[in-house]
Each structure stands twice: as structure tokens, then as C-alpha cells.
Design a protein that fits this description.
8 helices, mainly alpha, 270 residues, rod-shaped
């Protein structure tokens, strides 16, 4: 008898028809369209993240060459040859040299400092604009993806309520499944938005550090050109940095420590 009861219970047990694919099939073309939009947003966000990260790392690695080799050259033209032809630093140098040559054709109508400063500022702005390309897309995805997912949830709940009304049953098993499936779209929207926001903030902070280095380099170029090559920043290599740290450590160790005690000398008379 127990065996018969178990068999009857097994036959009467409801089959689980809930899941992501079931929710998408019930949602129809609208659910699939919203899901496709979210997938495009996610793929675009990760593409921009990796491409911009590679571009930023390339510029930061080139900055080491600028600090170690560029300022060792006798002239700006000679130093420019040590930089990559397509680098941001080479662009600043070329624009500075071009602005210096162009100013000689203007006479005294415009001061050289103002002309060079304006030319370098335009060059910096173009580089920063190129680095910021794609970041508005990340900001848009971070701001709109949750609402796109919420739209899918609202449509899914609306369909579920209509089906429940047509069935004439409002039991928990009739409500929980369709509503839970509809909430999947909100979860997908959040999964798309959170990485986009994190990537935007991280790339933006790295762009600010690059902008600071570009501004410092352009200031050094302006000072070098205005002084006819007399003013240039100190070149610090890895060897010189280690030597300076070693000498500072040696000087600190050789310096007598003052403990605030008084040494008393006793003289013995014969």
C-alpha cells in the first residue's frame, strides 16, 4: 500500500516548468529584444574596457621613455626621434616645434609664450578627448541598463497577471513562478550595469593621471622652448634613483643620534 501511495504522489507531483528559457519563451519577441539589447550593452562595455585599458597602459609605458631618454637629447627635434611616431608624447613635441616655427612668421603681434601655450593646450585637449572616447557609452550603459531590465520585468509581470486572471486561480504556485521569472530581467540589467559603472570610474581615474602627466610634460616643453633649451627637468633613471636612495640611507646611518644625554669626561691628574 505504501508503494501505491508513493507512485500516486509521484504521478501527481507538479513538473517544474520555470526557468530562464521558459521565461523568454513566454515573453515572446519583446523579452528576446530586451535581452538582446542587454547583451549588446554588456559586450560593448567589455570591449571598451579592454581597448581603453590597453591604450592607457601603452601611454603610461611610453612616459618612462620620455623621462629617461627624451630630455637627454640636445634639441627637441633630436629627442622627438626617440619617441614613437604615433604616441601622445610625440604629438605634443611635434605640435610644440611646429608652433615655435609658426610664431616666427607672425612678427610681434602675438607673444611667443601665449602662442605656444595655446598650441600645447589644444594638443592636450585632442589627446584627452581621444582617451575619453567610449567612456560616454559606459556611463550610458551604467545608467540605463537597470531600467531596460526593469522594462522586461514589468512586461513579464503584466503577462503573468493576465495569464493568472484568465486561469481564474491566484494561488501561490500560480503567482510565484511567473513573477520570479519576470524578475530575471532585472537581475540581468544589474549584471550589465555594475561592471559598466566600475569600468567607467576606473578608466576615468586613470585618464586623470595621464592628463596630469601630459600637462606636466607640456609645461616642461614650454619652459624649454621659452628659454632656448636652457631649462629642462632633471632626468632620473632607475640607477640614479637607487644611488640617491643608497646615499640618503648612508647619510642617515652616519649621522650621530642625539639622545639628549650629556657625556661627562673625567680627567685624572698625576
Amino acid at each position: 500500500m505504501i508503494t501505491n501511495l508513493l507512485a500516486v504522489a509521484g504521478e501527481a507531483a507538479p513538473q517544474n516548468q520555470f526557468g530562464f528559457m521558459e521565461a523568454m519563451e513566454q515573453g515572446g519577441i519583446i523579452a528576446w529584444s530586451i535581452f538582446t539589447v542587454l547583451v549588446i550593452m554588456s559586450v560593448g562595455s567589455f570591449y571598451i574596457l579592454f581597448t581603453k585599458l590597453f591604450e592607457q597602459r601603452k601611454i603610461m609605458s611610453q612616459y618612462d621613455t620620455v623621462r629617461s631618454q627624451f630630455w637627454r637629447a640636445n634639441t627637441l627635434d633630436e629627442g622627438a626621434k626617440k619617441l614613437d611616431s604615433n604616441s601622445a608624447w610625440r604629438q605634443l613635441v611635434d605640435d610644440a616645434v611646429k608652433a615655435r616655427e609658426t610664431h616666427t612668421k607672425m612678427g610681434d603681434n602675438l607673444e611667443a609664450h601665449d602662442w605656444l601655450h595655446g598650441s600645447l593646450a589644444r594638443s592636450e585637449a585632442s589627446i584627452n578627448a581621444r582617451l575619453a572616447g567610449g567612456l560616454p557609452f559606459l556611463a550610458t550603459v551604467g545608467a540605463t541598463a537597470p531600467f531596460v531590465g526593469l522594462l522586461g520585468t514589468v512586461i513579464g509581470i503584466y503577462r503573468a497577471l493576465i495569464n493568472i486572471g484568465l486561469a481564474g486561480s491566484a494561488s501561490i504556485d500560480k503567482v510565484a513562478g511567473p513573477v520570479g521569472e519576470a524578475l530575471i530581467m532585472t537581475a540581468i540589467g544589474l549584471l550589465v550595469a555594475v561592471p559598466a559603472v566600475l569600468a567607467y570610474n576606473w578608466l576615468q581615474s586613470r585618464n586623470k593621471r595621464i592628463a596630469e602627466r601630459l600637462s606636466g610634460f607640456s609645461t616642461d616643453l614650454l619652459a624649454n622652448i621659452s628659454s632656448n633649451g636652457a631649462v629642462r627637468p632633471a632626468v632620473m633613471t632607475a640607477t640614479s634613483t637607487q644611488a640617491a636612495a643608497k646615499s640618503a640611507t648612508t647619510a642617515t646611518a652616519a649621522k650621530p643620534a642625539t639622545t639628549g644625554t650629556t657625556t661627562t669626561t673625567t680627567t685624572t691628574r698625576k
